[in-house]
Design goal:
heterodimer; A: 117 residues; mainly beta; six-stranded mixed beta sheet; globular; B: 113 residues; seven-stranded mixed beta sheet; four-stranded antiparallel beta sheet; 0% helix; 57% strand
Amino acid sequence: AQKVTQAQTEISVVEKEDVTLDCVYETRDTTYYLFWYKQPPSGELVFLIRRNSFDEQNEISGRYSWNFQKSTSSFNFTITASQVVDSAVYFCALSEEANFGNEKLTFGTGTRLTIIP
Amino acid sequence: ETGVTQTPRHLVMGMTNKKSLKCEQHLGHNAMYWYKQSAKKPLELMFVYNFKEQTENNSVPSRFSPECPNSSHLFLHLHTLQPEDSALYLCASSSFSGANVLTFGAGSRLTVL
């Protein structure tokens, strides 16, 4: 069975600090996908990134970066120079191989990030 | 309208009421999903529809009844709910070629009294 663990329930940092959100996953599949979603106070989950299990390259997108390490089954998310608009709940998720319209994502419990001005 | 739209955004109902949640996607996607989000729990997949056909029912109690009349619309009919059913219900959609990325609506916040 698949499982995603986000051990950090809540994190608060002062604006402009860097912050890392941890994600550890469990799966028996050799092909799988990892995701991060952001849920702002408005409610909708906003897709941030998708990474497949064969691509261990780290990715950077502006102030966001992701570190994927298969050896430790982790897919951590770092926000550099945090801003108040980054305040949200962040979810890590895992899915089996793309199923073309029948996707089953397993989500973690989320990390609530608060950026203090 | 763009993306995935859910109505109503907030709903309060008694345990004997019958109500419905509506979801509409304007993305041309073929699959639609209902998720339940409760406090301090992972998102729970409830139902999946692919080209209007139900492909997943994740052991959801029969007091929740989904309906998918076409690939753009998804309903969740609610009847005789329990207080523990109070949660945020999220609708999502995905496309055949979308590489398993789900697009979510803003959710319907349900309170059962």
